[in-house]
């Protein structure tokens, strides 16, 4: 599959995407646990069908020590016993935030309260920004059919 647009050749994309990617790096440096960040990035990307992001974030998570069992169960996290209560709260918030149009209400009070039990305000801020960021980059990739999954190597963009 060939990409519909070449973002690296576009002046407009360069002006917009440089600060966007800087925002993504800032979230990486936030106090939200790194494992939670990768799990959320994977789940949002699964929902949005962004193969290149799933490829990237599963490989980054594995390189950081995430287990194959947990990576393989992200899509069915509700039925899996391998995630902490805090991770489950983050995944629930990520799903409702990603499926905002489907839910017609955004993130419900119960899901928000559960996340707030496990994360402080700074971590919640990072979580909300991460969910929003991943939804944006997923859409940029899916709409323009950016590079096919499989070729990413952990650490490639660091």
Automatic annotation (TrEMBL):
Instruction: List the InterPro entries.
Output: AhpD-like, AhpD_core, CMD-like
- What would you give as a GO molecular function for this chain, any one? peroxiredoxin activity
Domain spans labelled Carboxymuconolactone decarboxylase-like: 21-96
Q: Which PANTHER family match?
A: 4-CARBOXYMUCONOLACTONE DECARBOXYLASE FAMILY PROTEIN (AFU_ORTHOLOGUE AFUA_6G11590), BLL7811 PROTEIN
The record's NCBIfam families line, in alphabetical order, gives: ahpD_dom
Give the protein name, as stated in the record: Alkylhydroperoxidase like protein, AhpD family
| Species of provenance | Streptomyces violaceusniger (strain Tu 4113)
Lineage of producing organism: Bacteria, Bacillati, Actinomycetota, Actinomycetes, Kitasatosporales
């Amino acid at each position: 599959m060939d990409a519909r647009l070449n973002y690296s050749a576009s002046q407009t994309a360069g002006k917009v995407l440089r600060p966007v990617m800087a925002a993504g790096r800032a979230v990486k440096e936030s106090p939200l646990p790194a494992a939670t960040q990768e799990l959320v990035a994977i789940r949002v990307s699964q929902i949005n069908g962004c193969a290149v992001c799933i490829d990237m974030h599963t490989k980054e998570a594995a390189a950081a020590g995430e287990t194959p069992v947990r990576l393989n169960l992200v899509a069915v996290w509700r039925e899996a016993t391998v995630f902490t209560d805090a991770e489950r709260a983050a995944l629930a918030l990520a799903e409702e935030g990603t499926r905002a149009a489907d839910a017609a209400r955004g993130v419900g009070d119960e899901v928000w309260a559960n996340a707030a039990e496990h994360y402080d305000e700074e971590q919640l801020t990072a979580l909300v920004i991460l969910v929003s960021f991943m939804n944006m980059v997923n859409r940029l990739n899916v709409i323009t059919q950016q590079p096919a999954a499989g070729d990413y190597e952990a650490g490639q963009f660091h």
